[in-house]
Amino acid sequence: MNVLYESNIKSLPLISRGKVRDIYSVDESKLLIVTTDRVSAFDVILNDPIPGKGVVLNKMTEFWLNKFSDILPNHSTAVMPEDVVLKNEIDQVKDRAVVVKRLRPIMVEAVARGYLIGSGWLEYQKSGSICGVKLPKDLLKASKLNSAIFTPAAKAEVGMHDENVEFDYVIQLVGSELARRIRDITVELYSRASQFALDKGIIIADTKFEFGIDSNGELNLMDEVLTPDSSRFWPVSDYKVGISPPSFDKQFIRDWLESQNWNKKAPAPNLPMDVIKKTSDKYNEVLKRLL
């Protein structure tokens, strides 16, 4: 398998390297996004790539974007990545890159939660709410919520932690009309995807979406969509209230890191080969089940 930790496209100007994606300029209206095999945990980029991870993320995002195309437009263009790079660079973009529209990003992680887990569970234990959304008393870890909720987070720079915020923060950032539209679409996308996945034996506990504004002032879905990097996927067969269910995402890596004597600052411990392989297997398994 072709493992790509960091792309090196010389034929296009490099704009930035994120935790997972490398972004290049194609022209004034388009970008090339290369999804590498890098993995991050606790906002630290790990030294060890997960083989094939970028291909899985790219395929899953393409699948969901097509499925949601009737709800709102997205960042995709009809341009093939292979057509904007040199021949000797095609291996770096094949199956793991996309040419997208340049959008003005909205600096909010649009998080939808259907189950009580992760940072939402920690916040609920302290306040009985998540991002200002009051929840019933006496819920347990991994409890299914009565209905999906919108719990935004302020986007942070690479290496910094995203911060959960209340809906008023989004209103102040983009205005009440657009904030309500982002909230409603986030919940709609999550709800539709959750039902689809449930029929495949997968619970989507939570996920995050990102949005941007195009040159016509229209809201677009962008970045990754419902991937194992941006979502918690649980097998229905192993789900139990009160525990953190086994997952088809990078929670497996987080759990291993939590068992190490590490302060959650770079550099992170090197991953053992069995953790790398099992994580790769989990990503490919959820791709196979959903698609």
UniProtKB/TrEMBL annotation:
One of its GO terms (biological process) is 'de novo' IMP biosynthetic process. One of its GO terms (cellular component) is cytoplasm. InterPro entries: SAICAR_synt/ADE2_N, SAICAR_synth, SAICAR_synthetase_CS. Belongs to the SAICAR synthetase family. Residues 15-268 form the SAICAR synthetase/ADE2 N-terminal domain. This is Phosphoribosylaminoimidazole-succinocarboxamide synthase. Its EC number is 6.3.2.6. GO terms for molecular function: ATP binding; phosphoribosylaminoimidazolesuccinocarboxamide synthase activity.
